[in-house]
Design brief:
With 114 residues, the protein is α+β, with helices and mostly antiparallel strands. Helices cover 38% and strands 32% of the residues.
């Protein structure tokens, strides 16, 4: 999804929407950096879509760990390039200490069409 398409979607939803983001814990980056590194996999407009995706990919790759985060996106934020912190919701796989996670409007829009 492009940024413009995402903005149109938000307008259709009254100017804001809750979005759920699924992140993969990147084990190689964690070994190199010494701390958990999360990589955005996909975003969804429904909680159920995010949970189903995370559960499905975790079942296919039990050694990988997925985390679901939540964010309220609005048109004011979407008009800029500022990063916004996302809120941790749940884990699929081993739970570990997580760093603060941020996303930009452009990255979020791309993840919605992944």
């Amino acid at each position: 999804m492009t940024l413009e398409e995402f903005q149109d979607e938000l307008r259709d939803r009254g100017g804001e929407a809750t979005v759920w983001l699924v992140y993969l814990a990147d084990v190689m980056m964690e070994l190199e950096a010494g701390r958990p590194s999360l990589v955005l996999q996909q975003a969804f407009f429904t909680r159920g879509g995010a949970y189903a995706f995370a559960e499905r990919v975790h079942q296919q790759r039990r050694w990988q760990h997925y985390y679901v985060f939540r964010l309220v996106a609005d048109l004011v934020w979407m008009a800029g390039e500022e990063r916004r912190e996302v809120e941790y919701e749940t884990a699929f796989g081993r739970i570990r200490p997580l760093p603060a996670v941020h996303v930009t409007p452009v990255r979020l829009a791309r993840a919605l069409s992944a």
